[in-house]
Amino acid sequence: MNHKPGFEGRAGITRVEAFSDGVLAIIITIMVLELHAPEASGFAALWALWPTFFSYVISYNYIAIYWVNHHRMFGHARVVTNGLLWSNIVLLFSLSMIPFSTAYLGKHFGDPVASAVYAVSLLAPSFAFLCLESSIRRSGSQSAESQAYYRSTTRKGTFAAAIYALAVLLGVFWPYVGVTLAGLVGLFWIVPYGPLDSLFLRCEDLNAS
Amino acid sequence: MNHKPGFEGRAGITRVEAFSDGVLAIIITIMVLELHAPEASGFAALWALWPTFFSYVISYNYIAIYWVNHHRMFGHARVVTNGLLWSNIVLLFSLSMIPFSTAYLGKHFGDPVASAVYAVSLLAPSFAFLCLESSIRRSGSQSAESQAYYRSTTRKGTFAAAIYALAVLLGVFWPYVGVTLAGLVGLFWIVPYGPLDSLFLRCEDLNAS
Amino acid sequence: MNHKPGFEGRAGITRVEAFSDGVLAIIITIMVLELHAPEASGFAALWALWPTFFSYVISYNYIAIYWVNHHRMFGHARVVTNGLLWSNIVLLFSLSMIPFSTAYLGKHFGDPVASAVYAVSLLAPSFAFLCLESSIRRSGSQSAESQAYYRSTTRKGTFAAAIYALAVLLGVFWPYVGVTLAGLVGLFWIVPYGPLDSLFLRCEDLNAS
Amino acid sequence: MNHKPGFEGRAGITRVEAFSDGVLAIIITIMVLELHAPEASGFAALWALWPTFFSYVISYNYIAIYWVNHHRMFGHARVVTNGLLWSNIVLLFSLSMIPFSTAYLGKHFGDPVASAVYAVSLLAPSFAFLCLESSIRRSGSQSAESQAYYRSTTRKGTFAAAIYALAVLLGVFWPYVGVTLAGLVGLFWIVPYGPLDSLFLRCEDLNAS
CA separation (Å) from C157 to A97, C77, C150, C205? Predict the structure, then answer.
C-alpha cells in the first residue's frame, strides 16, 4: 500500500504543507537575528553591516522562492508517500542550512571555501526538490497540466543543479565567478511564470503535441 | 491568466495569510529575545533596561497593527496574483527589519542616523502595504464596501508614507522630532475604526455619492 | 456594528486562535534557548544549570496552562470584537514577558526586586485574561453552559489576580513567600476540571438555580 | 465526562496537532542557530564544526521521526482527554530538551555524564510517547487496524525505552557504547513501515487471529 496512516488523502497533503510552511516561516525569520544593532553610533558602524544585510536579502529571497514553488508543486500531489515525506524532510533540512552558509559567505566574501560551501548549500535543496518532484510525479495528478508542469520542473531543476555543481567547482578556483553563477540561477525561479518559463513550456508543448 | 497554480481561489488566499501569520507571529515574539535578564541584582540594573523594553512595546504594537490590517485587507482579496504574492513577501521582509531598527534606536536614542534608520524602517512596510493594496484593488472584490475600503486605505497609507518620508528628513537634523513624528503615525492605524477613520470614510462617501 | 472586517464569524475566531497558537508555540519553545550546554564537562557544571532548568519547567507549564485555557475560552466566543482582538494582543504581550521574568528570577533567586517582577509578570496576563473573558462574555455564547463558565472564570481569575497582587507586595519584604504564593496559584489552573473547579461550579450552580 | 471543553471532537484533535506541529517546527529549526559561521576562514575552521553539524543532523532526524509518528498516532485519536492533552504537553517538553542534550554531547563527546544525559533525553520522550499512546488507546478508535497499531507501538515503544534505560547505565561506564546503543534505536522508527515493522505486525497478527 502506498499511503502513510495519519496522512491520508488531501488532508495529509495539507498537513505536510502546513508543517513545511511553519519550518519555512521560521527559517526565513530567524536569519534577521544575525543582524545585531551596532554598539557604536554613526553611519560608518551601520554601513559595516552591509554584507550581513545583503546576505539576509539573498537568503530571504531564496527561501521565499522555495516557498512559492513548494506550494505550486504540492498542488499536483495526491497522496503522502514515504518518498514524498522524507524528500520533503530532507528539503527542509537542506534549506535550514542556507542561513548558515550565507552568514559564512558574508563573513568571508571572496574566500574559495566559503564560495564552494555556499554553492553546495544551494545545490543540496535543488537535489532534494528534484527528488520531491520525482516522488510527486509518480504518485500525484497525471493530468495534462500536471505532466507539463513535471516536464518543466525536471528540466529547469536539472539545469539549475548542473549550474550549482559547476559553481562549486569554479568557486574553488575563482570564488567570485562561482558565487555569481550560483546567484544567477535564482533568477530562473524568481520569474516562474515569466518569459523564461513560457519559453521552456512552449518547447515542451510542441514536443508533447 | 492571472492566478498562480497552487494558490487557486480563496484556499490560495488562506494559504498566503497562514504563512504571513506564521512570519508575523515569529517577528513579534523574537524581539523579546533582545530583553536579557540583567546579571546584576537590584532595581537600578533592571531600570537600565527601560529603553529596550520601551522599544519592544512599540515594535510589538506596530506588528500587531499590521497583523490586524493585513487580515482586514485580505478579506477583500479574491485571487493570488504575482503582484499580491511578491508585494506580500516584500511587506513581510520590511516588517522583519523593524526589530533591528528599534533595537538600534534603543541603543542610540537621540542619534540622527538611528532616527533616520528607524523612520526608514517604518516607511518601507508602509510602501509595501500600498503596493499590496493596489494589487488587491485590481484583482479583488469590487463591492461598494471594498471600494470604500480601498479609497480609505490608499488615502491613509499615502498620508502615512508622506509623514514617514518627512520624518526621515527631519530625523537627520532634529532626531527627537523625527522619531516623535514617525511614532505618531501609528495612532492612525491603532484606531482603524475609530473617529479618525469615520471622518475619512465620511468625506469619501460624500464624494462617491 | 460590532464585528471587525476580515475577522467575520467563527472563521475570524479561528484566525485569532491560530495566530495566538503560533505566538504561544514560539514563546514556549524559545525559552529552551536560555539553556546553554555548559563548556566544562562533568556533573558539577551540569548541576549548576538547575535554576535555569527549573525556571524553564515552571514557565513551560504556565504557558501550557494558558494555551489550554485560551482554547477553552475561545470555545465560547462568537464574534471578533475590538475588545477581544486587543485584549488578546495584550495577553500575548504579557505572556511573552514570562520567559524574561523567569530568567531574571532564576539568576537572582531570593532577591526582592526579582520576586516582585516575577509576581508582576504573572499578574499582568491574569488581568489581560480577565479583560478577554469580559469581552467574550459580552459578545459570545449566552448558553447556560457558557454562563456557568464565565462565572467560574471570573471568580477564579479575580481570586488569582488578588493573590498575585498580594505576592507582589509580600515579595518586596519576604521574597520566598511572594514567589511561593505566586507559584501556588498555578495549581488552580493546572486542574481546571479537578475537584477545586467542581467546588466553585457547584456553589454557582446553587446560586443560579 | 471525558472530553475537554474547547477541544471537542475531531476539531479538538486537529487543534492539538496544529499546536504540536508549531512547537515541533520551532524545535527542529532553532537547532540551526547553534551552528555559528566560523570567524576564521579556510577549511580547517569549517571542519572543526563537524560535531555540532553531526549533532544537528541527528536531532533533526529524531524530531522528524517523532513528527511522523505523532501524526500517525493522532490518526487513531477520537477525543481530547486530559490524559492526551497533558501527555502531549510533556512529550513536547521532553522533545524540546533534545537540542540541549545533543549540543552538550557535541561539546563533550566521549564524556560519561554527557552520554548519560543524552540517553536520558531520548528516554524521556519515549516514555511520554508511551503515555500518549496509552491515553489514545483508551479513548481513541477501537478498529482492528487501530488495535494492531496500538499493539505494535506499545511493543516497539517499550523495547525502545528499555534500550534507552540500558544506554543510560552503559553510558556512565562506556560512553561510546551507550551513545551508539541509543543512536541505533532511532533506526526502528526511521523505517516505521519497513521490514522490521512488518515482522512485528506479522507476529502480532498471528497472535490476534
Answer: 45, 18, 10, 18
Cβ A15–D38 below 8 Å, yes or no? no
Answer whether B115's CB lies under 8 Å from B55's CB: no
Q: Rounded to an integer, what distance in angstroms lies between the CA atom of residue B58 and that of residue B46?
A: 19
Per-residue pLDDT at A119 = 87
The DSSP element (H or E) to which A123 belongs, if any, is: helix A112-139
**CA C175/CA C105 separation, integer angstroms:** 10
Kindly tell me if the per-residue pLDDT of D207 is higher than 50: no
Chain A residues close to D29, C-beta within 8 Å = 23, 26-27, 30, 96
Question: In whole angstroms, how far apart are CA D53 and each of D58, D61, D103, D185?
Answer: 9, 12, 10, 20
Amino acid at D118: Y
- The single-letter DSSP state of residue D96 is T
Cell reading at A193: 511564470
Q: Is the pLDDT of residue D204 over 60?
A: no
pLDDT cut 70: percent of chain B above it: 84
Biggest distance spanned by C-alpha atoms of chain B: 65
Query: Rg (Cα) of chain B, in Å, rounded?
Result: 19
CA atoms within 13 A on the CB side of A194: 8
D47, burial (CB in 10 Å: exposed 0-12, middle 13-18, buried 19+): exposed
Cβ of C72 and D6 within 8 Å?
yes
What residues have CB less than 8 Å from D193, skipping those under 6 apart?
A4, A82
Give the Cα separation of A39 and D124 in Å (integer).
42
D98-107 helix and D9-30 helix, angle to the nearest 10 degrees: 20
Tell me, letter by letter, the H, E, C secondary structure of D146-160: HHHHHHHHHHHHHHH
Helix or strand run (H / E) with residue B52: helix B50-74
Of residues B11 and C175, more confidence is placed in: C175
Q: Where are the domains of chain A?
A: 9-208
User: Which residues in chain A are closer than 8 Å to D67, comparing Cβ atoms?
Assistant: 19
Q: Are A77 and A136 in contact (CB under 8 A)?
A: yes
Nearest to A26 among D29, D60, D64 (CB): D29
Q: Which of D14, D23, D27, D68 to mutate to probe the A interface, most A CBs <10 Å? A: D68
Question: pLDDT for B75-123, tens place per residue?
Answer: 888 888 888 988 999 999 999 998 888 888 878 878 888 888 888 998 9
Per-residue burial over C107-117, b = 16 or more CB atoms within 10 Å of its CB, e = otherwise: bbbebbbbbbb
User: Is D102 a residue whose pLDDT tops 90?
Assistant: no
Interface test with D, best of C13, C17, C41 (most D CBs within 10 A): C41
Measured between alpha carbons, how far is B27 from B56 in angstroms, rounded to an integer?
11
The per-residue pLDDT for range A85-143, each reduced to its tens digit, is 889 999 999 999 988 888 888 788 788 888 888 889 989 999 999 999 999 999 888 88
Q: What are phi and psi of A149, to 5 degrees?
A: -65, -45
Measured distance CA(C59)–CA(D79) in Å, rounded: 27
pTM, to two decimals: 0.85
Residue A203 is which amino acid? C
By residue count, chain D amounts to 209
Q: Give A37-91 pLDDT, tens digit per residue.
A: 888 888 888 888 887 787 788 778 888 889 988 988 888 888 888 889 889 999 9
For the record, the C-alpha cell of A83 comes out as 518518498
The separation between CA B124 and the C-alpha centre of its own chain, rounded to angstroms, equals 9
CA distances from residue C109 to A63, A187, C103, C170, D150 in whole angstroms, order as listed: 43, 55, 10, 15, 45
Contact A179, A119 (CB under 8 A): yes
Closest C-alpha to C101, from C111, C89, C88: C111
